[in-house]
Amino acid sequence: MNALSTEIFGKVPTRPSFIIPSRVDVEVVRELEQALGGRDRVAWMVENSLRPGTELMQYMQETRSTGFFTALASSGPEPVVQQVRRMLDSGRHVVFLCGNVASAGAVSDVPWSFLRFADSTSLSVVPVGVSMYNDDMAAPMVARAPYGRLLLHFMAEEPAGPSMAARVFAAWQESTGAALAVHPAVHEASLTEALLHSLLRYPHAEIVDGVDDSRMTYRRVLVYALTLSRRLRHYTSGKRLGIILPPGKLAIIANLACLFAGIAPLNVDYTATPEAFHHLCKESGIERFIATEAFIHKKNSFCWPSQRDIIFIDKELLEVSTSHLRFWELLSSWSGKSFLTSRVGIPSTTPDAEVMLGFTVSDGTNARLVSYSHRMLMAAAVQMQSRMAMGRGEVSLCAQPLYRTETLVPSLLLPLLLGHNVVTYPSPTADVRINTMIRQHKVQHIAMLPEHAQRLFTSAEAEQFSAIRNFLIIGEKAPDSLIREALMRYRLTLCACCSVPEFAAPLTMEYQASVQADDAAQVSHHRQLAGNLGCLLPGIYLRVTDLAQRDAVVAPDYPGIVRLYGPTLVRGLLGKDDAADNHYTAPYLGRLNEGGELCILGPVDAFSKVRGELVPHDRAEAALCSLLKINPQDSTRRIALIGMPDGASGGHMLVLLSTVHKKVIPNDTVALYYGLINMKLSPQWAPKQILAVPSIPLLADGSVNYEFCRRGIQSVLRAGK
């Protein structure tokens, strides 16, 4: 590996400061010493229960570095604070050294238990985000050596006071976003050039068609894609094309051809209703589509466009002569990327230019479209590869429809960028055939919806998944029964991906607990707690803010509003700019647990903050049902708590919508208040006002329509004034 390249961001403190880097090794220590003014300006702090590794401790001894040990568990924080202050007063920076204690994928090696020490002291802290990465896509962002680039991000000093731990952790998370932004694959991003380079670099890698077991090398795929790209420019002057094809070599060629032609492809949902299909055509402005006659006949129930608007890829490729193929294959083997780019006329682009389109979830009637840039998709590939660590030349399965955004990166882009043999099949429900291909080709990487994975397991053999390194569950939460079956029957560790349509990559990728013993009772489910989504991918960072004061960061383990940031954030729906402030506010209440993992607690509307106390509506409603003698098993909802802004307290006041009250009197709220106290529950759960209603407004899924309820309550309150 080449010599280490180090970049320093932010303002290095000049006056003595208490500094906590997110992780350390020998190289990090050397660079910190130099950045902070030399070894004589630094004192290293080591907590006895969190000692660094042998190599680092040996380096400290050999260089006779100044430092001191602490024992927080026995001494408490005050003696530690005094020692830190003595070192600061002597003119030295105090830098905390932490061992490699965190789980894979964690933002930092520093545990929450230590950060809480900083929470309870009068010390201010300078967080330093430490990021290691390589230019090579095979290991783009890492947490351990070897690495070729080191980034030290000196963040703004955090003043002493409450929620110090949360603020320091948030600063480290933000630094991962900065590190991802300067990675060469993202900073100088061109998905088109990266794919062209990979196809040239791995000419003998293959696309395997599971229907007929035919094989096509990357070199042949490249020639077909370049040839088709030139034809596409003659067929359309538009900047977008629809692709209506199942997973397979033709779908891969079609997507590559669009990219090489400077056209943004949209892989169309061929299960969509006619109304949904016409809507996406109108939203995207797409007028022409790539398909095959065979697929048109197979999906004859789909609302196909007129044949004059369809480019039949199978016919186009049949017209390519053998001599033409041989000429271009020879040319691609002798020439480089720059020559082919100019020879074929691949358009130049910018990192933020549109490269592909994708779908979001439905807004109730139709799916919405989003535009992906080169930078976003390359950042998504770097993020996922940093967690998956897919090796070069391995084998991936592509059987999920490519119109699913969650499939795009792990099943198509990453395998192509890494030179994988890609095994394809047009339907994820053909479990027997797919199982045969997994066994025959020793597939190592799979991404599937939970229901398709469940079908796979019903007909799988015991040793079939022995080669699997990454089995991603995408789209929806993996049921506990599926996780248990994979663990116990196949010794298979599933990786659950939490995705939202507003991001081009998953937010988290959580590997489920592995089998601890043969007995099923010994299977560890400590990472399957309700709502636990795991560690965020590198480059995605969040703030958990107060439910009432939405700019105030809350302490660790305290619930709040989840606000997410990162370079893979979609800049709004197509034609809009909903994310202009560069963050996404999740519609759920969440918290960061002690491992820095994101836990989702429930919809934001299902919680209220009343006089500083967080009130969970479901538990409060259950208690109120008991007081009002309402049968909780009743199929008709009788009451609903709605949190309304309370200007006096800066939080919320609770309003109870009730179908059991015909006439409301003041004593009704008083009775509920004292009833909750008698049940030894918080009186803050009591509604401030009760409104009698004929029915509770609900959404299609049976949950309360909070927005409609709030509008109705506001009207009643205004009328009452």
Short synopsis of the structure:
This protein is of the alpha/beta class.
Portion of residues within helices: 25-40%
Largest sheet: number of strands, sense, barrel closure? 8 strands, mixed
The oligomeric state of the chains shown is single chain
Instruction: Give Rg in angstroms.
Output: 29 Å
Low-confidence stretches: 514-530
What fraction of the residues are assigned to beta strands by DSSP? 15-25%
Number of strands: 32
Based on the structure given, which CATH architecture of the largest domain is correct?
Answer: 3-Layer(aba) Sandwich
Our count of helices gives 23
CATH topology term of the largest domain: Rossmann fold
Question: What is this structure's SSE topology?
Answer:
Blueprint: E1 5-10, E2 18-21, H1 26-35, E3 42-47, H2 54-62, E4 67-70, H3 72-75, H4 77-89, E5 93-97, H5 112-119, E6 126-133, E7 141-142, E8 149-154, H6 164-181, H7 184-187, H8 191-201, E9 206-209, E10 215-217, H9 218-235, E11 240-243, H10 249-260, E12 264-267, H11 274-284, E13 289-291, H12 293-298, E14 310-312, H13 313-318, H14 322-334, H15 337-344, E15 354-362, E16 367-373, H16 374-388, E17 395-398, H17 405-417, E18 421-424, H18 431-441, E19 445-448, H19 450-458, E20 470-473, H20 480-490, E21 494-498, E22 508-511, E23 532-534, E24 541-545, E25 560-565, E26 584-592, E27 598-603, E28 607-610, E29 613-616, H21 617-627, E30 639-646, E31 651-658, H22 666-678, E32 689-692, H23 706-720
